[in-house]
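User: I'm new to structure prediction. If I give you an amino acid sequence, what do you actually give back? Let's try with this one:
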Amino acid sequence: MPNTVVVLGAGVGGLTAATRLRELLPERDRIILVDRSFDGVQGLSLLWVLRGWRDAEQVRVRPKPLPGIDMRTAEVRSVDTAARVVHTGTGPIPYDAVVVALGAGLAPERVPGLSDALATGVAGQFYGLDGAERLHRQLSRIDSGRIAVLVAGVPFKCPAAPFEGALLAADLLRERGVRDAVTVDAFTPDPLPMPVAGPAVGRALVGMLERHGIGFHGNRAVARVDPAARRLEFADGAGEPFDLLVVVPPHQAPTAVAGTGLGAAGWIPVDRHTLAAGAPGVWALGDSSALLLPNGKPLPKAAVFARREAEVVADGVARHLGHDAPEPHFDGLGSCYVEIGGHVAAKGVGDFFAPGGPEVTLLDPSPGFHEEKQEEERAWLARWNG
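Assistant: Good question. You get back a string of structure tokens that encode the predicted 3D arrangement of the chain. For your 386 residues, that looks like this:
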């Protein structure tokens, strides 16, 4: 009897999982890939949109038809893990196995005043294509004053992104000839940037910021944004003024993910090595999942992990359905680039499953790492857009 595997979300993880499953499963088994629009964006390129190095059409991901995969445009409303049914805006889809790769959503309303600040242009964010384009325009107009780069909540996608945003904003201001007239400061509730990577990496990133004239302020949990006064108010009672706020809004699990009831915080807890969730026939990967490291901290939400997790999940689904496939084993190895401006990037590489905590090395900035990231961007767009 044929099986049906439903993959939810056509981002990095969903596309990789669906195509890998098609390689592993017999032709009689159905693979249904569900996405709200199949009109996405290359996430690693959004900071380049902010900087002005890319425009919208250069970073869009519009997947071509995938042979042997039923691509359905629909809003995922809920996943009934007991009945094994995905409910969508176009009707129910029964499944034998489901892969949840719906990513993470933004929740600016969780910080009083932040939604108003974004709506009125007092603040900008780069976690979406429209936001990144708008923020580029905002950065292209500011000639003096103070830019505050704020992490408004954790966890969030791409741990280095806020600090890359600060560095690339400073780089754009320098190119415009107004850098000396604009102060740039970064604020985060964490004690150091990228705390999961360890204090040595955090201190190295602080050093990069300081060398580019960017102030770093750790342990600053925002309580409120006052858009009229252009002021940040922190949980410790302190306040900071700004002229333009560049914000990483709080992130939240999509409603359909939170509605599974598999995780108290909405994110779906998964096995560290197989990405299997706590219900039969359910796997979750990427930003939708909550994977705890040996030291009890969560694995960062980053595309580099989602891509590898997707291959592991596909192997696990195939074996679950009784087919030959490699033993699923996610190893926790990963790397990321840290753009600092001037077409130069640093690179962090590490073993996040090391028993004593992640072992991460931050390699010195070079044009070569920026070129590596460009090649990664080109390869991904070519693979899916044709």
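You can read the tokens as a compact description of the fold. Here is one thing that stands out. The first strand starts at residue 4 and ends at 8.
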